[in-house]
Design goal:
The complex is a heterodimer of chains A (about 45) and B (about 240). Chain A is mainly α. Chain A has one helix spanning about 5-40. The chains are: A mainly alpha (about 45), B mainly alpha (about 240). At the A-B interface, helix 1 of A face helix 1, helix 2, helix 3 and helix 7 of B.
Chain lengths: ~45, ~240
């Protein structure tokens, strides 16, 4: 059995969870930006 | 089902509740699955603790293919029935699938180093997964490069359908060729070969990835609909 290996496990989880977090932040930021601009269209000028 | 969401207003009403619900569901499953995978699941009798990389690697691999299959279906619907939201759905899913494929490749490399003694090998499974990642990038680049959205949607849908040829190659590469990568141990004829104590956290993490994909794709679709509306209004303003 391979002993240890945590020096590979932690980076793998950091890459996976970090990647998913960055993706989520980018998607949310884009959604907030476009929905704000769309809401501005509905405001009376 | 398809026609129910052909109306963007109806889709926006549905997704306003569905996207946050899927996102919260994903967070709950991640909060359950990560400690389960890292601390409460057993070590593998051969790979030891390094087998814990499986819980982030395998769901990324499954859903990078699943997302591409979803995009293929949406592209087909877009080309054949000209469903107004099908191309939006395919484009919205692509960045999520690309990130899943990247996670699969990087975590696979981190798993390969201690177990195989190499970070990379040009074998069938790894090479076809790299081709899938490059196809995602090509699909996104095509959307960005063509200014006319209708033309971009058509070209991207054709590229997506052609790229789908790679899906069975990724899946069956471990059966067709002698590869360093291990053969399928869950989705295989004869049933799952994985220990039930490992299957629980694996399916929990797979569920988390799936719900996150659903949430992010719906959010991306909402962004695209808002963006189209804003750009159309600007165009009308410029013409007036």
């Amino acid at each position: 059995m391979i002993e240890g290996g945590w020096e590979y496990i932690w980076p793998a989880y950091a890459v996976a969870l970090g990647g998913l977090t960055v993706l989520t932040v980018v998607v949310l930021a884009r959604l907030l930006a476009w929905s704000r601009q769309a809401r501005d269209l509905d405001r009376p000028k | 089902m398809f026609s129910a969401f052909a109306n963007p207003a109806r889709f926006m009403a549905f997704s306003a509740g569905a996207a946050p619900a899927l996102f919260v569901g994903a967070l709950i499953l991640f909060a359950t699955g990560i400690p389960w995978a890292l601390f409460y699941s057993p070590a593998d009798y051969q790979m030891g603790d390094t087998a814990r990389i499986m819980y982030v690697h395998v769901p990324a691999a499954w859903w990078s293919m699943g997302v591409y299959a979803f995009m293929t279906g949406a592209s087909f619907v877009s080309l054949v029935w000209r469903h107004v939201l099908a191309d939006v759905a395919a484009r919205a899913a692509a960045p999520v699938g690309a990130v899943f494929a990247a996670i699969c490749l990087i975590t696979g490399s981190l798993w390969g180093a201690p177990t195989w003694g190499t970070w990379w090998e040009w074998d069938g499974r790894m090479t076809s997964m790299l081709v899938l990642f490059i196809t995602y990038l090509g699909y996104l680049a095509l959307w960005a490069a063509v200014e006319d959205e209708e033309k971009a949607a058509r070209l991207a849908a054709i590229l997506c359908l052609v790229g789908a040829i790679n899906l069975p190659i990724v899946k069956f590469s471990v059966d067709w060729w002698s590869t360093l990568h291990q053969p399928a141990s869950i989705m295989r004829s004869g049933g799952s070969a994985i220990h039930p104590e490992m299957l629980g956290p694996l399916l929990t993490m797979a569920g988390a990835y799936l719900l996150l994909f659903g949430a992010l794709t719906l959010m991306n679709m909402r962004s695209a609909i808002h963006r189209r509306r804003v750009e159309n209004a600007r165009l009308r303003g410029a013409q007036a």
